[in-house]
Amino acid sequence: MNRANWRIWDVVFILSIHLIAKFIVVDFWLEPLLTGFGFDGVITGTITGLFLACVALTSVFLFGIKKNNLSFRDLGFRPEIKIRKHLRLISIYTLLALVTAGLLLYIMYEVIGVGPNERSNAVADPNVFKLTLALLSAAVISPFYEEIVYRGFIYENFRKHFNRWPAILLNAIIFSLVHLPSLDILPVNIVNGILFALAYEKTRSIYVPMIIHGLFNAILFLGVLIGN
User: Fold this and answer.
1) Rounded to an integer, what distance in angstroms lies between the CA atom of residue 82 and that of residue 84?
2) Handedness of CA 21, 168, 158, 173 (dihedral sign)
3) 218: Cβ–Cβ under 8 A, 6 or more apart, which residues?
4) What is the sign, positive or negative, of the torsion defined by CA atoms of 133, 138, 139, 142?
5) Residue 226's Cα: distance from chain center in Å?
6) Are 218 and 228 in contact (CB under 8 A)?
7) Cα(212)–Cα(199) distance, rounded to whole angstroms?
8) 35: Cβ–Cβ under 8 A, 6 or more apart, which residues?
9) Which alpha helices (DSSP H) does the chain contain, by range?
10) pTM assigned to the model
């Protein structure tokens, strides 16, 4: 199986850009600025999510695709791979992700005593517009750019240098750590990182993990909403 001609330093550089944007620009400047303007957690989270998506996608395009003279096919955009052929895999992986998440979150909340993160609490807001915005952010924006970055680019790069399982595990660990400081979903993101990478590995289409990721986030979001 041919892999894109990326170097491991491309991952380090682009991941560094994303981490600086998230943990320095967003946490120390953009979020306080938006809060100061009176925006609540849902609006602030959506705006910062869009900002991170723009940073991540721009860096991947400039320093991943363009720098190495590659194409979007190298990120898994392969329209000839039909989604309908993978509906069974999508269903199984989504169900597996949800069941595992339920078990892990129960352990985190009830056994270990970790509290829900701020985004979980924001779902309790009864405002329909804000709920719709939060759902779009969780089920569309995040899966779209995160799968391009973490599976289409980072995992694809790791598979050029490592065997399957070391690449999958390393990718899952990185995927979970970038979601800090949300400790309650840390183990969930590790498991999901493994499942999303496996889905990409098996299908060679970035659309498949995007759909699984989006379905998982949407169902979990609606479950939290109903639970509140």
Assistant:
1) 6
2) positive
3) 135, 138, 139
4) positive
5) 23
6) no
7) 9
8) 44
9) 8-20, 31-36, 41-60, 87-106, 118-122, 128-136, 142-147, 156-161, 164-177, 186-203, 207-227
10) 0.92
State whether residue 98 is helix, strand or coil: helix
Of the candidates 19, 225, 197, 33, the residue with the CA atom closest to the CA atom of residue 139: 225
How many whole angstroms separate alpha carbon 18 and alpha carbon 210? 19
Confidence at residue 128, expressed as pLDDT on a 0 to 100 scale: 82
Residue 117, both tokens? 């993160």
Amino acid identity of residue 100, one-letter, is T
**Torsion (CA) 51, 15, 171, 143 in degrees, nearest 10:** 10
State the DSSP code for 115.
P
* Averaged confidence pLDDT in the chain: 90
Amino acid letter at 53?
A
pLDDT tens, residue by residue, 28-74: 999 999 999 998 888 888 999 999 999 999 999 999 899 888 889 99
* Gap between the Cα atoms of 210 and 30, Å rounded: 27
Please count the CA atoms within 13 angstroms of the CA of 24 that sit on its side-chain side. 6
pLDDT in tens, 109-125: 888 877 766 655 556 66
Q: How far apart are CA 147 and CA 213, in angstroms?
A: 8
